[in-house]
Design goal:
The structure is a homodimer of 371-residue chains. The first copy, chain A, has 371 residues and is of the alpha/beta class. Chain A folds into 2 domains: 264 residues, TIM Barrel (Alpha-Beta Barrel); 105 residues, no CATH class. In chain A, 42% of the residues lie in helices and 18% in strands. Chain A contains 15 helices and 17 strands. In chain A, the strands form 5 sheets. Chain A has a 5-stranded parallel β-sheet with strand order 4-15-14-13-12. Chain A has a 4-stranded parallel β-sheet with strand order 5-6-10-11, with helices on one face. The first copy, chain A, has a 3-stranded antiparallel β-sheet with strand order 1-2-3. At the A-B interface, helix 13 and helix 14 of A face helix 13 and helix 14 of B.
Chain lengths: 371, 371
């Protein structure tokens, strides 16, 4: 039911391409998974995502357990049927969000007690409960419940969180009942190389169809994040997919791909779009800048996305300034197209064994303006 | 360049169908024009509007003159080119908005001095300036500058506003220079039949390709609004299109069509959608109602719109509750489809000379729940 096949590897680095088979079809790796936090990749329809070449999307257990609740999604036939997306999906476990989005939490070995940001009600999320909800939601890939400390956590706190994450990974695997879902446990250990190594050893000792690297994009520097990847990736089994959680800036993804990472998710492309920022080959830009007001060119000259093929920078700028929803939609389409296309090009380069050249060339152009 | 042809008339009432030819193609009447206030029909792309069967859209001079300004739109090739809509368009004159959306206004025979709601800057809008801006914007149909009093205006104030509207209609016609735009003058007179009659006589005495009925949807009752239509419509020349400004509730439109109205615009379908309300054959509904939480049916069972053919009421409810932009998009698509389809059915019924039967049947079902 689940199968990961490596298609090509670029032996000049650790980059590889592959395909992961799920009950809802397969997706190519390296893959970027747009975030459909509350069951909708913000502003877009499932058909638009398909047209963008998106093959897998993600949803959040934390948000969906609070509203509408796992029971309702289950009653409506599961996440995919309910939201009209018939391709592969992944749900996170709620671990990260419990620590980043909720208040008044108590953590013990059983789980996390937190206050709902919606109505202040108290909830207890445990590994068992997270898995039960993820089984109600019904995504193809589900995640173990983990404790995700901030980047500035002291080593002793990071160690404690890692040990709890290990225990909860085991509990998550034990709690899992459905056979048509693949559960990925999560490696923690913050910015401490020895903890990260210990965590890889423990987590990869569990028999799982894939492994995730958590505890990144939580406030650490880009250098610290890359050090984590360089510590962890060489120790991971080659035949299993690796998911780097929460990462989606173009430069970070290219660095991670070189280390052998296969899956990514990040709110950056969709969130930046709603705030009026877009990427093109020359870096990231704020569309509200005055210089764009009479530009009749698309925001990226060689881009084939719907926004670029139909609308000028001038009009997109106007829509964003006026807070018109269409502006958020069109920049979202462009930013997702940009990332998905970057991974498409990356896969091609890996197959041609030219990934490092490709990556260097892309980044030199991407950063040219800032330098 | 402009031509209005009546295709069919239902002699049981005053309803008729027609086609209005403009430089950007023709549209069938009775027509509903979705509001693209700031150059975007809220949440939708031009292609989605085309797919809905929409043939003409409207934009607002008041909003576009303040941002980005007529010069920029002109520089970008005019409204249609800039927003990517290649069909017919209409711009209003800013008259209505100056009175309803701005502050600290002074009105004299020259025009209206008002404060921009964006930055408090003082602007003077005159008939000449409104026409100049509408020529920069470049829509096919443009409107005379008018004074639009509230429904509770005393008769003396309504008379003064009407007389000014007449003088400004003349000034608007004189100021017009472009030959590829049709200017419609506007009938005022509030709820006073004798003023309305006087206004029709004056306005239809001006040689114009179409006439508009203004000063409705400004706080009067449905009965008062219908009385206005019944007073005005019989006095209008049959061979010219009639545009009832600001009206778009299904029952009001059917009543107006029976009187011989040809064109409508209203923010109701798009605004209601963003606030979670939708129409179906059984009236208007609030999608956030608890009863919809596990409904796996579309919001209208026999509807062919994208929202109804792809998504359940349960999911749409969730999107609206979560303030997900996709929810606003999908309800907007449905509500516009509902109105555009209602006018499509109306045209068919008029051609079959069964409009009154059709209208009665539609309304009895539409109001069944409320009775």
């Amino acid at each position: 039911m689940f199968e990961f096949n490596i298609i090509a590897a670029d032996l000049n680095c650790s980059a590889r391409t592959g395909a992961f088979q799920t009950p809802h079809g397969s997706f190519e790796t390296p893959a970027f998974m747009p975030c459909g936090t509350k069951g909708s990749v913000k502003t877009l329809t499932p058909d638009e995502l398909k047209n963008l070449g998106c093959e897998i999307i993600l949803a959040n257990t934390f948000h969906l357990m609070l509203r509408p609740g796992g029971e309702i999604v289950e009653k409506m036939g599961g996440l995919q049927r309910w939201i009209g997306w018939d391709g592969p999906m992944l749900t996170d476990s709620g671990g990260f969000q419990v620590f980043s989005l909720s208040k008044l939490r108590k953590i013990n070995d059983e789980g996390v007690t937190f206050q709902s940001p919606l109505d202040g009600a108290t909830h207890l999320l445990t590994p068992e409960k997270s898995i039960a909800i993820q089984e109600q939601l019904g995504a193809d890939i589900i995640m173990a419940f983990d404790e995700c400390p901030p980047a500035d956590a002291e080593k002793s706190a990071a160690k404690k969180a890692m040990e709890r994450t290990h225990a909860w990974a085991l509990k998550s695997l034990k709690a899992k009942q459905r056979k048509d879902q693949a559960l990925f446990p999560i490696i923690q250990g913050a910015i401490y190389p020895d903890l990260r190594k210990e965590s890889v050893r423990y987590i990869t000792g569990l028999d799982a169809p894939g492994y995730a690297i958590g505890g990144v994009a939580v406030g650490e520097t880009k250098e610290q994040m890359r050090e984590v990847m360089e510590t962890v990736c060489p120790l991971l089994p080659k035949e299993k997919p690796r998911y780097l959680m929460g990462i989606g800036e173009p430069d970070d993804m290219l660095a991670a791909i070189a280390c052998g990472v296969d899956m990514f998710d990040c709110v950056a492309p969709t969130r930046l779009a709603r705030h009026g920022s877009f990427w093109n080959n020359h870096g990231r830009h704020d569309i509200t800048k005055k210089e764009f007001s009479v530009s009749d060119q698309p925001i990226q000259s060689d881009c084939e996305c719907y926004a670029c093929s139909r609308f000028s920078t001038s009009y997109l700028r106007h829509l964003i300034i006026e807070k018109e929803i269409l502006g958020a939609r069109l920049l979202t389409i462009h930013n997702l197209h940009f990332l998905i296309d970057l991974l498409r090009q990356s896969r091609k380069a890996i197959e041609a064994k030219t990934f490092q050249t490709f990556s260097k060339k892309f980044l030199s152009e991407f950063y040219a303006k800032e330098r």
